[in-house]
Amino acid sequence: MNQAATVPFSVTDRVREALAVTLRGCEELIPQDDWIKKLARSEATGVPLRIKLGLDPTAPDIHIGHTVVLNKLRQLQDLGHTVIFLIGDFTTLIGDPSGRNTTRPPLTREQIEVNAQTYYRQASMVLDPSKTEIRYNSEWGDTLGSRGMIELAAKYTVARMMERNDFHDRFKSGTPISVHEFLYPLMQGYDSVALRSDLELGGTDQKFNLLMGRHLQAEYGQEPQCILTMPLLEGLDGIEKMSKSKGNYIAISEDANTMFAKCLSISDVLMWRWYTLLSFRSEADIAKLQAEVTAGRNPKDAKVALAKEITARFHSAAAAEAAEQDFVNRSRGGVPDEIAEVALSLGDGGAPLGIGALLKLAGLAASSGEGNRLIDGGGVRIDASVVSDKGLKLGAGTYVVQVGKRKFARVTLG
Asked: Which PROSITE patterns has this protein been placed in (predicted)?
């Protein structure tokens, strides 16, 4: 029986505040009335709600696009609820078909273990580790067994599974669908049964899987979870969703200077969406700042504030201040305080080293050919002077070599 739906509890001001926190920046809350009842019950009984987020360790690093849901998780955690950070080490073996037009190649157990090692450490930059329950879905996935998997599969129909857009589109186009892909939403839904979750978070592309959790909880006699979908964050280009494969991302493990500079590179329009989804400032503060920019304040002031907030979250306030100063120095043609020190040897008999080879050996270009292309584009400087001669050769000495806006090295030839 759905206790949240049958037992009346008062909707207090604290419940209304918690609902406002839940709704900030979200795409959908399903069903909202049930969530209000769950919040009211928790407020009246003092029993925290169980809030779940699952991430499959398909890559070793988390980027700030992932932190849209992590931020929401932290906000709900600060309200006193139990946060469950679920690492999908079992479901990753299947491969999430969400949004795919081909079968996703599953990772090996070894790849998954390597990636999983860094996930929680990185997520802890946003979540409060002392209030976070970390789980792995191999705990129940590995022990479910063949009989349990057959019983689970019997609780959903193929017709309902084919309502899913990516499966429907692939079937219509004749693109193969492997039977094991049907197991992914079933297993993600079963995670909610195993954890008895009250709310599950995910991106908009996960809606089908999240609804599966509600369905299976009801099938197993549990109170169905509510689901909260968050928008997919656009990357640095402001067009595509943030993705490592598209190169438009900021990894939360990047150094402070790079993180700050990348944040400043986004458009003035995209900045406000990032404020809503990534900033911990109140909506009133953001609205006030936006009104000031509309009235004539330089939008760069707002962008710098956002860049500092994000950089400080993953590093420190001091690192964010230093990154801002580093960016100012670079924009004025200055050299950062800390740059790589590289020692290289000259050729036989002390022969000078060609600029292309120097860029490659110093780690500033992937190859001599790429170095030459950078020179053609005017992107290489030595001691602040632009290099235009691809045939340039350098003798013994120390040089500050710059490639683009952010790559520097102090190279000593001898």
From this structure: AA_TRNA_LIGASE_I, S4
